[in-house]
Amino acid sequence: MSLDLSIRVESALEAQTLAISNTAKKMKADGIDVVSLSVGEPDFETPQCAKNAAIKALSENFTHYTDSNGIAELREEIAKKFRDENGIVHAKSSNIIVSGGAKQCIYNALMALCNEGDEVIILAPYWVSYPAMAILCGAKPIIVSGDFENHYKVKPEQLKAAITSKTKCVILNSPSNPTGMMYTEQEIRDFAQIIAEADCYLLSDEIYEKLTYSEVKHFSPGAIPELSEKVITVNGMSKAYAMTGWRIGYMHAPDHVFKEISKVQGQSTSHPNSIAQKASLAALQEGSSDIEQMRIAFAQRKHLTCTLLSDIPGLKFHIPDGAFYVFISFEDITDDVDFCSYLLEKHHVALVPGDAFGCPGALRISFAANEITLKKGIERLAQGLKAYGHTA
Fold this sequence. Notes:
Strand order of the largest sheet: 2-8-7-6-5-3-4
Radius of gyration: 21 Å
Number of helices: 13
Shape: globular
CATH architecture of the largest domain: 3-Layer(aba) Sandwich
Number of strands: 13
Number of domains: 2
Helix content: 40-55%
CATH superfamily of the largest domain: Type I PLP-dependent aspartate aminotransferase-like (Major domain)
Structural class: alpha/beta
Mean pLDDT: 95
Distance between the termini: 58 Å
Order of helices and strands: HHEHHEHEHEHEHEEEHHHEEHEEEH
Strand content: 5-15%
Low-confidence stretches: none
CATH class of the largest domain: Alpha Beta
């Protein structure tokens, strides 16, 4: 009898962001004063309108199964959002699925798209879970890296060279986790022209869409008519609405893809939490002022973080266009995993190594923390750099 386990699961790496966060939490529980700037989670409260809707749903006993794709009124509100805000004019509720977070949306989509031996093109630096999810779905992740000089953005000619007959999907994340960089509308249209001519899909992860700070405006590739049958658009409530624990993501997909994605969800988790769906509906309808207040606060924190980092000799980074991260590059520290472990153990500050994002020799700082925490964490980073032997 063989007791072998799944090769695909064994090949997929644990998310380093979660591993570092868990270690930091354990150290805190042991009484150690740890500053964590590692997790991509807003420290704001969920909008009151969402909490009120959840309480109302509970009082009305809305606690049973819903449609496996999500409740009708939420799906219609999401379709309206895609039409009005993202220019996806063909979006309709029958092509919307609500899942247990944007992460589940992406996994469901890849599960519906990929066969053994397919390739998924991932633009690096990338969110930590993309390669693992591709592997779990039987596909091979193909990493295409943007360099520092181009603000970590991949160029159209790089994408074109990476596409083969095995390419099933390209994953685009703008604003980017971990870099905070955004692709311009023209850059996305250049990608779209390449994908329109290829036999593959584009999965657009737009979870940080509403958290932007620069002159670059968010643009959804799903708004490009010639890509209407090839784009899967993913978003969710976690980041902009500070609803990480509610676990609600949503997605728009073309008819033929949607049918298979719906099948994946129906045979795995079924619908997401009923109460969280009602809360999300209220947030989408009434939470715009809450989002703007958070966005303004994040913009101030971004400025503080970049100012403090600029005072540390020898750091290279770009001011982020969106999200809530700064991605720092080093020339003299190549083992960023060892360095981040050192920072956590010796200086009690938790950061994420660039290796987790497919970009060794770097690290990610999250500015989803208050000013006191940011100042303390960056001060510890500066002390750690000096003690580690970093040179300007």
